[in-house]
Amino acid sequence: MKQTLQALFTYGQETLKQQGNPEPELDAKYLLLEAFHTDMVHFLMDRNRELPDAQEIRRMTERYQEMIGQRARRIPLQQILGTQDFMGLSFVVNRYVLIPRQDTETLVELVLKEHPGKGERILDLCTGSGCIAISLAALGNYGPITAVDLSQEALKVAAENCRRLLKEKGRVTLLQGDLFEALRGAVKEPAEGSRSGEPGTETSCSGFQAETEGFDILVSNPPYIPTQVIQGLEPEVRDYEPRMALDGSEDGLEFYRRIAAESPAYLKQGASVYLEIGYDQGDAVRKLLEQAGFIDVQIIKDAPGNDRVAAACWHRP
After folding, report:
1. What is the pLDDT of residues 285-294, one digit of tens each?
2. Three-class SS of the chain
3. Over the stretch 105-142, which tens digit does the pLDDT of each residue have?
């Protein structure tokens, strides 16, 4: 039987369907286009033409079959392709970072709308791939942006995304540490693979002064899934995305407690805070922020109508 792109697409689609993949047709198509370095227009034009018996075609076919096998094991499509689109930008992703989701665009769009950009200093906690910090740097007119993550491997991904996406548009400083501890040191350690003058990771810094060095805007998509809920998630999330980026403790609120309690020491008077939240966490996060002294707390919904962002203002007594 002759080998065609259509035959390969059918093979991939059927394989994924048998393994319970939720979108077998779409995933098989993305993987075929990637393996054969083509686009949808040329696929439709050439799909029924017999493929030549050439070494390069055999290599592409083997790569496609390998990727279909990975997806059949429920490895996320984005990790197989190595990229994910977010806010019109293409971010590098791997198993060390949470895959950027459209839900999080709600937070970025809100910041861009409410703060068009006048040189504000921004702090991004739990940055992961850097999608929030880098999108704000690329799309807004902000001052220094500091992005923090506990994972060194995640910061390597964020550094690569800085190199690829920012260029002359802005610079994000990457710090390694557990939330605010990253701001309490002074030693710079470039992320592996970064070149001189490019974003790296920094650890330690002392004598932080909120009045002179404080942040105007704090953003974060922290881990917020309750521990016991994680086991019931889709295999793509449960088995292949970093648990430390998912697990928000027994009730999912641990990081919100810490941010509400610790962030005032690092915020300027009147600073704005934007936190991504779970669809059922609005009331709980609102209460935590108000108890910590934040004012004008609002819960903003995403496009499907679910609670998605807690926004507040810091008012120092």
Report:
1. 999 999 999 9
2. CCCCHHHHHHHHHHHHHHCCCCCHHHHHHHHHHHHCCCCHHHHHHHCCCCCCCCHHHHHHHHHHHHHHHHHHCCCCHHHHHCEEEECCEEEECCCCCCCCCHHHHHHHHHHHHHCCCCCCCEEEECCCCCHHHHHHHHHCCCCCEEEEECCHHHHHHHHHHHHHHCCCCCCEEEEECCHHHHHCCEEEECCCCCCCCCCCEEEECCCCCHHHHCEEEEEECCCCECHHHHCCCCHHHHHHCCHHHCECCCCCCHHHHHHHHHHHHHEEEEEEEEEECCCCCHHHHHHHHHHCCEEEEEEEECCCCCEEEEEEEECCC
3. 999 999 999 998 889 999 999 999 999 999 999 999 99
CB atoms within 10 A of CB 232: 8
Rank 104-108, 118-122, 178-182, 211-215 by mean pLDDT and report only the highest.
104-108
- CA–CA separation, 275 and 296 (whole Å): 14
Q: What is the pTM of this model?
A: 0.89
Q: What separation, in Å, do the N-terminal and C-terminal C-alpha atoms of the chain show?
A: 77
Q: What is the mean pLDDT of residues 216-224?
A: 98
Contact 251, 286 (CB under 8 A): no
| Residue that has been written with the tokens 């009331």 in this structure | 283
- Residue 212 has φ and ψ, to the nearest 5°, of -105, -30
Write out the two tokens for 11.
């093979």
Read off the pLDDT band of 190 (50, 70, 90).
very low
pLDDT at 197: 38
Using alpha carbons, select from 86, 91, 121, 78 the residue that is nearest to residue 105.
86
Q: What is the pLDDT of residue 117?
A: 81
